[in-house]
Write a structure and sequence with these properties.
- The protein is of the alpha/beta class and 256 residues long.
- Helix content is 29%, strand content 14%.
- The protein has a domain of 170 residues: Zn peptidases (Aminopeptidase).
- The protein has seven helices and seven strands, in the order αβββααβααββαβα.
- 32% of the residues are buried.
- The structure holds zinc ion.
Length: 256
Amino acid sequence: MGETYDKYYNYVDLTERFRSLAQRHPHIANLSSVGRSVEGRELWVMRITLDPEKDSPGRPRFKYVGNMHGDETVSRQVLVYLVEYLLSRYGEEPRVTELVNSTDIYIMPSMNPDGFERSKEGDCTGVTGGRDNSKFSDLNRSFPDQFDGTTVDPGHIPEVMAVIRWIQEKNFVLSGNLHGGTVVASYPFDDSATHHLQGFYSQSDDDSLFRHLALVYAQKHPVMKTGQPNCPDSPEETFSNGITNGAHWYDVAGPL
Ligand SMILES: [Zn+2]
């Protein structure tokens, strides 16, 4: 810490930064890639836990993924800062030390490194097309749909295929996916069998737990917790307590 941040880390910066952090903190950090993007960029994951070279049975696995929409860049940068924070405060801040000792934490700052490189700072309307991957796929609409069974050509979405393999291997107990835009904590499910466009509460079996987690997250955020309109694209949008069921907000189907 103690450094000045005045720009986003591009792919080269991020790669160098993560390699150096993993080298400096080998007892709590391990860098790996779960696959490659269309253009061959690594999908970096920093694993942060005590003795990260070993299996840690009984330690719950948690993951954060950022930047699946390549132009939603804050989600990527804050995850780099989170990695730096956890690594630099370990052994000094009891809460961080306890988290890293008791949890198997995985952080992927960018699921769409190609889209990020295409994005232009200040282009708030996405005209340069950084949202999608390099095969014009929206990665947030390319996972298999739980209700319809429609799929995307796997050759167009290596990033999604890599993340599916990773999820199946690790069996995460909890995950968060960070986006840009509206400030809200959205919890499962994101769609329903009928694909109502809006206003249909699609409840999962863990609904009360997800609601609780979303509330805890939102209440820590001075803007999110107000639930007041905060996105220029949706000036009328409000959220009770800064949270929403994903499908109730709007239905995000899988491949269309
Ligand atoms: Zn997004």
